[in-house]
């Protein structure tokens, strides 16, 4: 070992990591349940959940055990071979949803990339080579590959990289008339998040989603639900579409699927899947046994009526605590969302202080997220204990008091 070693500190980030993130000033080193500790041993309550990923908290004992066991069994084969964990997980996902066929990948963007490619492939192969238009929404987020970031509705993320994938149009979210104005026989898909997550925790209305379903049926287009953030119990159902009558043709899920281990899935029906043939799409890592075994364990725990009822109960704790804070400080205009995907929109006079609230929260020992330009976002573990909710809310109150003086 060399005599002088580079100290591993937050400063090193600014020297060696591509400058596309602005991480917090501390470096977490350990997590357990809904608590995290940094290099100095300072404790944090986690209301962020790794951006809606660690749905069972950090280092859940069952996931740890599953990962350890599988790590001694088989890690990776590629899709030249299939494997038992992938087959088991796919069977369980089809049993639990509208879907018959599953494609596994490693991230939300990759699941969406597959979904958008499938939608176009299906339309161009079964109806017309000109049926390629994708309708998506302002403020939508679908990932960072060039196709998915272009379908996303935030040009600041897709500009500057040269010519974009073509034939993608964006209209205002929750505005059915705007969709009617652009949909036509050349439309292959409408892509929507049941609750816009990154865009500001904005739920789609029931009327909007059922209107999209009708338009898709009328124009022979596929309805794609991006449930990367809303899936896996986040809203109190296994998938958000299960709250309503509207069933999509393609659904993507990622974030919480592996509870923190990278894995994603695209779900669809047989009639759509059958246009694909060996070689039409693929991935090296997708569906590897290590990821699928952890996701299977995660799904087994989350797809349980008691756990899902607990998400609803925790929703009530969060809303009640946020309303109490708001009665005192009057900083939120709306508190919205479903289950444990909750957004508190800052009043206009506080919107510019969004980063200050998050930084002050960290100083008081609370991990918190933003969404959009003026929303505090709460995406904790689906099994966060009541005591952690209360302690976290006390810290939030202290942080707010500090910021607004
Ligand atoms: C996070 C997110 C994605 C992208 O997922 P990655 O794993 O970062 O590629 C896509 N869609 C939605 C709705 C998301 O919240």
What does this structure look like?
It is built from 14 helices and 17 strands. It is α/β, with parallel strands linked by helices and 405 residues long. It starts with 9 loop residues before the first helix and ends with a helix. The protein binds pyridoxal-5'-phosphate. Pyridoxal-5'-phosphate binds next to helix 5. Residues 107-109, 112, 141-143, 193, 197-198, 226, 228-229, 254-255 line the site of pyridoxal-5'-phosphate. N(2)-acetyl-L-ornithine binds at residues 144, 283. The modification N6-(pyridoxal phosphate)lysine is found at residue 255. InterPro entries: Ac/SucOrn_transaminase_bac, AcOrn/SuccOrn_fam, Aminotrans_3, Aminotrans_3_PPA_site, Class-III_PLP-dep_AT, PyrdxlP-dep_Trfase, PyrdxlP-dep_Trfase_major, PyrdxlP-dep_Trfase_small.
Q: List how many beta strands DSSP finds.
A: 17
What would the CATH topology of the largest domain be?
Answer: Aspartate Aminotransferase, domain 2
Q: What is the general shape?
A: globular
What's the helix count? 14
CATH architecture of the largest domain: 3-Layer(aba) Sandwich
Overall average residue pLDDT = 97
Q: Name the CATH homologous superfamily of the largest domain.
A: Type I PLP-dependent aspartate aminotransferase-like (Major domain)
Alpha carbon gyration radius: 21 Å
Q: What is the CATH domain class of the largest domain?
A: Alpha Beta
Small-molecule binders: pyridoxal-5'-phosphate
Strand content of the residues, in percent?
Answer: 15-25%
* Helical fraction: 25-40%
Structural class: alpha/beta
Largest pleated sheet: 7 strands, mixed
